[in-house]
Amino acid sequence: MAIGLEDKKAIVAEVNETATSAMSLVIADARGVSVGGMTALRKEARESQVTVRVVRNTLAKRALEGTDYECVNDALVGPSLFGFSMEDPGAAARLFKDFAKDNDAFEVKALAVSGQMLGADQLDVLAKLPTRDQALSMLMSVMKAPVTKLAQTMNEVPGKLVRTLAAVRDQKEQEAA
Fold first, then answer.
1. What InterPro entries does this protein's entry cite (predicted)?
2. Where are the domains of the chain?
């Protein structure tokens, strides 16, 4: 069924708005994936704050103009499934990587982050990025380590004095006995 000009403009505007606010983009070829499989992928995507869209390549090229993801135009060959990560840069990569494990027909074609296109072989690098919460907890542990070490060192001085006084007391008690 043909899409009217107004519908095409709406699709381009919607995809452009999504691409402008997205943190990363993963493009895959989903030919051969069952309807049930695609439904499951879309459900997981909603839970992971990933926007999944199937868009014609000509419309996608227009929608991605002026965004960080204009660099993926060369990868737009054949059917394309777009996964935009909205909250976490690695969310779409993790989602597509996990889905590809269970579906042999699902193939990642390209990915892009911050205006740089990466090949499908870089999917693991993007998928292994920590989430925001994980990154904050790692940062907090690094910031907490020097303070903890300082507190332990400062606590060691009076502790050593107390152990020395206890040893002197024990020695005097033994001499008195």
1. Ribosomal_uL10, Ribosomal_uL10-like_sf, Ribosomal_uL10_bac, Ribosomal_uL10_bac_type
2. 5-129, 131-176
Given the structure tokens 């907490």, which residue do they identify? 144
Beta strand 107-113 pairing with 50-54:
unpaired
CA-based angle 44:49:51, to the nearest 5?
A: 85
Containing H/E element for 2? none
Q: Rounded to two decimals, what is the model's pTM? A: 0.69
Give the separation between CA 70 and CA 76, rounded to whole angstroms: 11
Please check whether residue 50 is in contact with residue 28, taking contact to mean a CB–CB distance below 8 angstroms: no
At 3 the three-state DSSP class reads coil
Task: Name the β-bridge partners of 29.
Answer: 107
Q: What is the mean pLDDT of residues 127-144?
A: 78
